[in-house]
Amino acid sequence: MAFFEDLGRTLSEIGQTAATKTKEMSDNIKTNNQINAEEKNINTLYTQIGSLYVSLHPNDYEPDFEKLITDLNNAKQRVELLKARSNTESNTGFCFCTNCGTKVSADAAFCPSCGTSLQAPAQQPAQEQTQPVQEQAQPAQEQAQPVQEQAPANTPE
Ligand SMILES: [Zn+2]
């Protein structure tokens, strides 16, 4: 019976070890999360410190800041240029399909997405297109056989 007592004790120890391991792992995750949060906090503070320094010393910064501030100003200029270009692209040279709303080139005659005519008023073509679709649906069955009957139409009398 000593064997089973030993076995029971061993299993109990294994269980405790597993529980301890699990607790250690969750403690580890908590610690890592705290580290990440603090590092994020540090980065935010560095950003604020840098931003404050640049606003306090826009032109009289110390020489060590020369490259960083030059790079910063260049990046800001590129953003402004890109924003201006983005506005230009969205405001000129493009329009939106009156039928489906797709962004299309301003000089496009038809919407590449739905085929709506973009030069003429869009309301008339839209109505004309919906009716012929129904007319085509029925003759499709008749076309299979009458192919031979169409030939005599050309026959002179
Ligand atoms: Zn369209």
Question: How would you explain this protein's 3D organization?
Answer:
It is built from five helices and two strands, in the order H-H-E-E-H-H-H. The protein is mainly α and about 160 residues long. A two-stranded antiparallel ribbon has the order 1-2. Strand 1 and strand 2 form a beta hairpin. Residues about 120-125 have low confidence and may be disordered. The structure holds zinc ion (ZN). Zinc ion (ZN) binds near residues 99 and 113.
What is the element layout, followed by pairings?
Elements: H1 2-56, H2 66-91, E1 94-96, E2 103-105, H3 123-137, H4 139-142, H5 147-150
Antiparallel strand pairs: 1-2
This protein binds zinc ion.
Jot down its keywords.
5 helices; flat; 4% strand; mainly alpha; two-stranded antiparallel ribbon; 157 residues; binds zinc ion
Q: Name the poorly predicted regions.
A: 121-126
Give the distinct bound molecules. zinc ion
Overall strand count: 2
Q: Strand portion, in percent? A: under 5%
Number of DSSP helical runs: 5
- Main beta sheet, described? 2 strands, antiparallel
Cα-to-Cα separation, first versus last residue? 118 Å
Derived from helix and strand composition plus strand pairing, the structural class reads mainly alpha
Q: Major sheet: order of its strands?
A: 1-2
Helix content: 55-70%
Mean pLDDT value: 79
Series of secondary-structure elements, N-terminal to C-terminal: HHEEHHH
Radius of gyration, in angstroms, nearest whole number: 38 Å
How would you sum up the global shape? flat
